[in-house]
């Protein structure tokens, strides 16, 4: 996967990723995408392109455990989130939704907004003009879930329902 970097800081919480006021009002993925990060970066939803990557600091996804905070980014076309660290439930919601959550502090420190990155999930590498950064590759099971597009599509395949 290859895309442009959108860079944010520490403690990006689920309320700024997808505002709570939309939680029970907006349910269509395309409509969710239109509100992605609107309280943090009003230009994001209008300018994000399929394949773009979010890069952020520590504690990404803190706050409530609402799944919409992952689904809105995926629906907006975000290919992956690279962060110094993730809140555990947000990390798991990413995997369940098929949005790769990548822990790579070195890449976070080096990359800037607008940089272009290429991510090799299988080998745990991030490539950019700023250098090559390694991250622990996902286990075979987690990678299979991500490649299937999330836990539900993975389970359907596993059970032969597709």
What does this structure look like?
- The protein has 162 residues and is of the alpha/beta class.
- The chain has a single domain, classed as Aconitase, domain 4, CATH 3.20.19.10.
- Helices cover 33% and strands 19% of the residues.
- The protein has eight helices and seven strands; from the N terminus they run βαααβαβαβαβββαα.
- It has helices spanning 14-17, 29-33, 44-47, 68-75, 88-97, 105-110, 140-148, 151-158; strands at 2-7, 53-56, 80-83, 101-103, 116-120, 125-128, 131-134.
- A seven-stranded mixed β-sheet has the order 4-3-2-1-5-6-7.
- Helix 4 packs across helix 5 (88-97).
- The mean pLDDT is 96.
Topology:
Elements: E1 2-7, H1 14-17, H2 29-33, H3 44-47, E2 53-56, H4 68-75, E3 80-83, H5 88-97, E4 101-103, H6 105-110, E5 116-120, E6 125-128, E7 131-134, H7 140-148, H8 151-158
Parallel strand pairs: 1-2, 2-3, 3-4
Antiparallel strand pairs: 1-5, 5-6, 6-7
Helix pairs in contact: 4-5, 7-8
Outline of this structure?
This protein is α/β, with parallel strands linked by helices. Helices cover 33% and strands 19% of the residues.
Low-pLDDT parts are: none
Mean pLDDT, nearest integer? 96
Report the major sheet: 7 strands, mixed
CATH topology: Aconitase, domain 4
Radius of gyration of CA atoms, rounded to a whole number: 15 Å
Helix content: 25-40%
Query: Which term fits the overall shape?
Result: globular
State the name of the first-level CATH class. Answer: Alpha Beta
How many angstroms does the end-to-end distance come to? 25 Å
The fraction of residues assigned to DSSP E strands is 15-25%
Pairing-aware structural class of the strands and helices? alpha/beta
As for the number of domains, it is 1
Secondary-structure element series: EHHHEHEHEHEEEHH
CATH architecture: Alpha-Beta Barrel
- Looking at CATH, the homologous superfamily is Aconitase, domain 4
Strand order, biggest sheet?
A: 4-3-2-1-5-6-7
Identify the quaternary structure here.
Answer: single chain
Q: What's the tally of helices?
A: 8
The strand count comes to 7
């Amino acid at each position: 996967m290859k895309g442009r970097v959108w860079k944010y800081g520490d403690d990006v919480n689920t309320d700024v990723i997808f505002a709570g006021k939309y939680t029970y009002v907006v349910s269509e993925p395309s409509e969710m995408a239109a509100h992605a990060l609107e309280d943090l970066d009003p230009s994001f939803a209008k300018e994000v392109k399929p394949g773009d990557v979010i890069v952020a600091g520590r504690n990404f996804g803190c706050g409530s455990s609402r799944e919409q905070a992952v689904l809105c980014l995926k629906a907006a076309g975000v290919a992956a989130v690279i962060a110094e660290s993730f809140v555990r439930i947000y990390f798991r919601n990413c995997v369940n939704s098929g949005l790769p959550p990548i822990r790579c502090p070195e890449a976070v420190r080096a990359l800037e907004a607008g940089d272009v990155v290429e991510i090799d999930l299988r080998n745990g590498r991030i490539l950019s003009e700023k250098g090559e950064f390694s991250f622990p590759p996902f286990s075979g099971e987690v990678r299979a879930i991500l490649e299937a597009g999330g836990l539900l599509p993975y389970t359907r395949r596993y059970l032969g329902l597709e």
